[in-house]
């Protein structure tokens, strides 16, 4: 492996880990609690995720919440999801082996996600092990979320890499836009929550359909 790439940045939900069932179940608990009878399926929730937990709640409630109601239910979502987020979540087949390969060649590994920071850190530690990733950047209330490059640039700075020394893997248009905004080469992955067509429309450098291709790109 001969490369100028020193850092691989990964989205979390839909790229490293399949989290859709637990996200959906948490939203469904809140919908039931507040008397909303929406019956969303897995495909619906795959469309709802990607822009952070608050936006997920807003979409699950079909945009019917006032600003105050949204803040209240979002505040309930966070601790509830922290209790349920590992009920069904799992790393996609082949991901761990690919990450191990990158680590063995000295590539720094970062997670940049729109999942709340505490939940992101807890999930990554549980599934991959403590300190497995060199840096995890989740959402902190009041700070910009993807596709703003803030969290991605924070990650690069933390591991001492420049944008042209990094590569970004993600499953959504938000990820492709984030990579572009941060000046990083973007790779779309189709095993997650969004479609090939959505990724293709953002003009990433390449789109891959199996994790085994991750290490071949570096």
Describe the protein.
The protein has helices at residues 20-33, 42-48, 53-60, 67-84, 95-104, 117-128, 150-159, 173-182, 196-200, and strands at 7-10, 17-18, 90-91, 108-116, 135-139, 166-170, 185-189, 206-208. It is an alpha/beta fold and 218 residues long. The strands form 2 sheets. The protein has a 6-stranded parallel beta sheet with strand order 5-4-1-6-7-8. β4 (108-116), α6 and β5 (135-139) form a beta-alpha-beta unit. α1 crosses α4 and α3 crosses α4. The N and C termini lie close together (7 Å).
What's the structural blueprint in terms of helices and strands?
Blueprint: E1 7-10, E2 17-18, H1 20-33, H2 42-48, H3 53-60, H4 67-84, E3 90-91, H5 95-104, E4 108-116, H6 117-128, E5 135-139, H7 150-159, E6 166-170, H8 173-182, E7 185-189, H9 196-200, E8 206-208
Parallel strand pairs: 1-4, 1-6, 4-5, 6-7, 7-8
Antiparallel strand pairs: 2-3
Q: Strands across the major sheet, in which order?
A: 5-4-1-6-7-8
In round numbers, the mean pLDDT is 95
Low-confidence stretches: none
Please count the helical segments: 9
Describe the main β-sheet briefly. 6 strands, parallel
Q: Per the principal axes of the C-alpha atoms, what is the gross shape?
A: globular
The H-and-E topology, N to C, reads as EEHHHHEHEHEHEHEHE
User: How many angstroms does the end-to-end distance come to?
Assistant: 7 Å
Percentage beta strand: 15-25%
The secondary structure category is: alpha/beta
Instruction: Calculate Rg over CA atoms.
Output: 17 Å
- Counting DSSP E segments of at least 2 residues, the number of strands comes to 8
DSSP helix fraction: 40-55%
